[in-house]
């Protein structure tokens, strides 16, 4: 791997760590098992090239990502991860619920229902990772 590719990979993982400190190791192991190119090309593009741009702050980008993944309706693991990531960087549970309601209007009830399932899981998982905080009711 070239120095430029390695730098791009490291920048992608650094941003990913802001979203979830445990994610880089898990994602690297998963992607590198198949090919080291995936982390540099896929994550490098997503996180080092696009998400890190200065035009929109990371918190807003995560809310947009959550809305897009909810509307798509076909990426439940990524949706759950990004809901947790949004919570990790300061998006509130109430804001996630508002995104769900917005998705019901513009992407439909099935997309909203899928989002609710992912949100429940993400809320519980996020709460379990918070030291000293009991898990909240997982009903959005």
Shape: globular
**CATH class designation of the largest domain:** Mainly Alpha
CATH superfamily of the largest domain: AhpD-like
Count of strand segments: 0
| Radius of gyration over all CA atoms, rounded | 16 Å
The figure for the number of domains is: 2
What composes the largest sheet? none
SSE series: HHHHHHH
Second-tier CATH architecture of the largest domain: Up-down Bundle
How many distinct helices?
A: 7
* Assembly type: single chain
Task: Look at the structure and give the mean pLDDT.
Answer: 92
Q: How would you describe this protein?
A:
The protein is an all-alpha fold and 140 residues long. It folds into two domains: 3-51, no CATH class; 58-128, Up-down Bundle (AhpD-like). It has seven helices and no strands. Helix 2 crosses helix 3 (36-51). It starts with a helix and ends in a 12-residue tail after the last helix.
Tags for this entry?
mainly alpha, 76% helix, AhpD-like, 140 residues, globular
Describe the protein's topology.
Elements: H1 3-19, H2 23-34, H3 36-51, H4 58-72, H5 76-88, H6 93-106, H7 109-128
Helix pairs in contact: 1-3, 2-3, 4-5, 4-6, 4-7, 5-7, 6-7
Summary, kept brief:
The chain has 140 residues and is an all-alpha fold.
